[in-house]
Write a structure and sequence with these properties.
With 178 residues, the chain is mainly alpha-helical. 58% of the residues lie in helices and 3% in strands. It is built from 8 helices and 2 strands; from the N terminus they run H-H-H-H-H-E-H-H-E-H.
Length: 178
């Protein structure tokens, strides 16, 4: 696994541990789902349901693949070595990428405006300065928008163990607090 991917793994664990208790469990995914849907007020019921399903499937896949001792929680030790395995998680990641990026486009024009992107990513738990750096790395148009497919592809790339120098690496770059 590339160094960049290892940093992404650590960040993803901390985000998935939404309640901050040091392990990942189904309640963390419920908490994160609620946070994201709370800011996706303009999205239709189908888009909201797709996100809810994708988070539920994330947890189910993680629990099935990584909960080595069957205790209903995933420790960082269980998580680290396997979470970026495309064979185990590729379909789950693709489903999540599609659902989250669709929430960013409630009007269906194929474009995501920065304010909603920032709100959704903040709800997941990313740092705002890193979110803006990521959005900029996606090369927004003159009206400060990116395409749904750009974001969806960026999410899939973020979970790839062999990827480096990708826009998603902006999410793990240390930034000074303004």
């Amino acid at each position: 696994m590339r160094t960049e991917a290892a940093k992404r793994v650590e960040l993803v664990f901390s985000l998935f541990d939404a309640n901050g208790n040091g392990v990942i469990d189904s309640g963390d995914f419920d908490l994160m789902t609620g946070r994201v849907l709370e800011v996706a007020t303009a999205s239709d019921d189908d888009a909201r349901a797709a996100l809810r399903t994708s988070f539920r499937n994330w947890w189910t896949t993680l629990a099935t693949e990584l909960d080595a001792n069957g205790d209903g929680v995933i420790t960082v030790e269980e998580f680290r070595p396997f979470v970026l395995d495309p064979k185990r998680f590729g379909p789950t990641i693709a489903e999540f990428a599609e659902a989250l990026s669709a929430l960013g486009d409630p009007d269906g024009d194929g474009l995501i405006e920065r304010p909603l992107f920032v709100s959704l990513m903040t709800a997941i738990g990313f740092e705002e300065a890193n979110i803006h750096a990521l959005f900029d790395a996606f090369a927004p148009d003159a009206d400060d928008r990116i395409t749904v497919s750009t974001w969806s592809s960026g999410i899939v790339d973020y979970y790839a163990p062999d990827m480096a120098g990708i826009p998603g690496d902006e999410l793990v770059a240390p930034r000074a607090v303004a």
